[in-house]
Design goal:
Helix 4 runs parallel beside helix 6 (105-118). The protein contains 14 helices and 12 strands. The strands form 4 sheets. Strands 1, 4, 5, 6, 9 and 12 form a 6-stranded parallel beta sheet that branches. The protein has a two-stranded parallel ribbon with strand order 2-3. The protein has a two-stranded antiparallel ribbon with strand order 7-8. The chain has 2 domains: 30-134 and 209-322 and 331-343, Glycoside hydrolase/deacetylase (TIM Barrel, Alpha-Beta Barrel), CATH 3.20.20.370; 138-203, no CATH class. It has helices at residues 2-12, 15-27, 42-46, 60-73, 79-88, 105-118, 138-148, 168-185, 191-199, 214-221, 243-261, 280-288, 324-331, 334-343; strands at 31-36, 39-40, 58-59, 75-76, 95-102, 122-126, 153-156, 161-164, 226-230, 267-269, 293-295, 314-315. The protein is an alpha/beta fold.
């Protein structure tokens, strides 16, 4: 409670404005890039037993609330404009960029109408391998499997482990445990065959978990509000891939989108996106494909001088309407601003 009160005072009673002014004087205004994944109906997010309520998903009302809050404190701009301003050293106003990864159909059905209604630009980073199919990306296929099992426990001989499936949270733990097994024991190009062998049709998504169609993606690509970026072809973690496979994951994701949509792909989102998930080789591959920016999941605010292929992002929380203070705390990069003080103790 005390921590929340301190945050409230910091943001609404002046210290945040003073801190931002100091940072602006020191390093210039900042650009906060937010990232989300699925945007689901409120009743889905409210049901904690639903397989879609994994951390990182956002409800329609939370997106609307975030837009209203951001409009009070920031100028919401496109990723294209953000890169232009950062590259030219011309960031004069505190700004925010909205980005969404993976290309699930609910982004078109639930999110796109909100963006249109409020005239908000956004970027969709797409994994082209699943667009227009009834298949899931490898990690979602694992989640599909563990939620499709009717039993409360399952033993998988391949891993030598039994998995507790007695609740939704236990099913998620089991799914992530199996993902860790895959990454530790199999090459990324083997992921789907291993999952298929164990899960069969249980790894396939229900219709509500499909990704967008090419027709839906084309509508987005033709809207000036929307920027389409690439997110790798199969969403394999690039650091687990050989150089040849990572080259394919990057290049194929870009060229397939460009051919299908008749557009130029200039922006990329690294799968997983932690500091260990991409390197100079991957950046060189992006540059060779004329990609001008790469966004990560490294937290923080972007300022003039940033490497355009190592841009920071902050995740959408699920409870913006219940805790605006915490939302602004993280979007404003306050934890990163305070980190030097903690490190000096």
């Amino acid at each position: 409670m005390l921590k929340k009160v301190i945050k409230w005072i910091f943001i609404y009673c002046g210290p945040w404005s003073i801190a931002r002014l100091f940072k602006r004087r020191q390093s210039g205004a900042g650009i906060s890039i937010l990232y989300g994944h699925r945007v689901l109906e409120d009743q889905v997010i409210a049901n904690k037993e639903d397989s879609r309520t994994i951390t990182g998903q956002t409800s329609v009302s939370e997106v609307i609330e975030s837009i209203k809050v951001l409009n009070k404190f920031y100028k919401i701009i496109s990723i294209e404009k953000a890169v232009e301003l950062l590259s030219n050293g011309d960031v004069k106003a505190e700004s925010a960029v909205l980005t969404f990864d993976d290309g699930f159909k609910d982004n078109f059905k639930n999110l796109y109408p909100v963006l249109k209604k409020y005239n908000i630009p956004a970027t969709f980073y797409i994994n082209a391998s699943v667009i227009g199919t009834n298949k899931s990306l490898w990690f979602q296929a694992v989640i599909n499997f563990f939620f499709a099992i009717k039993e409360q426990e399952i033993n998988i001989p391949l891993t030598g482990e039994s998995y507790d499936l007695s609740s939704a949270s236990k099913r998620y733990q089991a799914a992530f445990g199996f993902m860790r097994y895959l990454q530790a024991n199999h090459k990324p190009e083997e992921f789907h065959s291993v999952i298929d062998e164990i899960a069969g049709e249980k790894c396939l998504p229900v219709e509500s978990d499909y990704h967008m169609s090419w027709e839906e993606l084309e509508i987005l690509a033709n809207d000036p509000l929307i920027t389409i970026g690439a997110h790798s072809y199969n969403h394999y973690p690039l650091s687990f891939c050989s150089e040849d496979l990572s080259n394919f994951e990057i290049s194929e994701s870009i060229t397939s989108l460009e051919k299908k949509l008749n557009i130029k792909i200039r922006h990329f989102s690294y799968p997983r996106g932690h500091i260990e998930d991409f390197n100079e080789h991957h950046i060189a591959c992006l540059k060779s494909n004329s990609v001008i920016s790469g966004v990560s999941t490294i937290r923080g605010v972007n300022r003039v001088g940033e490497d355009m292929h190592r841009l920071k992002r902050v995740g959408f929380p699920q409870n913006i309407s219940k805790d605006r203070v915490d939302f602004l705390w993280h979007i404003g990069g306050i934890p990163q601003m305070l980190q030097p003080l903690k490190s000096s103790k």
